[in-house]
Amino acid sequence: MKILVVEDEPKLASFVKKGLEEQSCEVDIAYDGQIGRTMALSSLYDVIVMDVNLPKMNGFDVAQSIRAEGLKTPILMLTAMGSVDDKVTGFEAGADDYLVKPFEFRELLARIRALSKRNANAGAQANLLKIADLELDLNEKIARRGGRRIELTAKEFGLLEYLMRNRGRVVSRIDIAEKVWDIHFDTGTNVIDVYVNFLRKKIDKEYPIKLIHTVIGMGYILKEE
After folding, report:
1. Quick one: which of 99, 109, 164, 208 could link to 129 by a disulfide (CB 3.0–4.6 Å)?
2. Which pTM was predicted?
3. Domain-by-domain residue ranges, the chain?
């Protein structure tokens, strides 16, 4: 399992990370809500474990925001706020489960496994990214627009997936180079622009609604025109 832990207490975050890694999980940590939201939307996780009282953006707002983006990854709220009203607020924001601090690690692990299993059963839906009439099936590695299949190379698919996971947000060439190419950006190359143009020809050229937009001096954004 790949788990995102959004927790601003370093000791607790480290404790949870160590325990999950001992269970052969891959764990990423975000120490504030804004970074947690960005990471949740830019990578594919099996479960998100998230505190409520977070710097910059609280857990309820993060959950609500990523649900509004169409992300269906299970969210386990891990917090000292244990009243019924708090739980109702969390569930209404999009949380799937709620564990109150202090907690036993084995209970946390059991709940994470239950959420992951439930998510796996709905894997086909969870692994489908969509904006307007554009769909990206992460299981079959297929892109479709208006029901019509679009042939993409592996790198074009990776670029489109990154843009779709960050839909509505401007991503810089540096972001794309690091996340899609896994390299530090070389200002002497225009490879990012070339591949974005490749995608535009396949994704936008024959459709009246354009989805890939250039933000001059900043980068690119995927959104409905």
Report:
1. 164
2. 0.56
3. 2-125, 129-222
Residuewise pLDDT in 10s, the chain (225 residues): 889 999 999 999 999 999 999 988 899 999 999 999 999 988 788 899 999 889 999 989 999 998 888 788 899 998 887 677 778 888 888 888 888 888 889 999 999 998 888 766 555 455 788 888 999 988 888 999 988 999 998 889 999 999 998 888 899 988 888 888 777 655 566 888 999 999 999 999 999 999 999 999 999 999 987
Cα distances (Å, whole numbers) of residue 37 to 4, 71, 75, 111, 193 = 10, 11, 12, 21, 26
For the record, the structure tokens of 217 come out as: 């001096």
Question: CATH number of the domain at 2-125, please?
Answer: 3.40.50.2300
Q: Tell me the CATH number for domain 129-222.
A: 1.10.10.10
Task: Please answer whether residues 47 and 96 qualify as being in contact, where contact means their C-beta atoms are separated by less than 8 angstroms.
Answer: no
Q: Measuring CA to CA, which residue among 30, 71, 27 is closest to residue 54?
A: 30
> Mind spelling out the 3-state secondary structure of 138-189?
CCCCEEEECCEEECCCHHHHHHHHHHHHCCCCCECHHHHHHHHHCCCCCCCC
Query: β-strands 134-137, 142-145: how paired?
Result: antiparallel
Question: How many whole angstroms separate alpha carbon 224 and alpha carbon 131?
Answer: 8
- Residue 171 backbone phi and psi in degrees, to 5: -115, 135
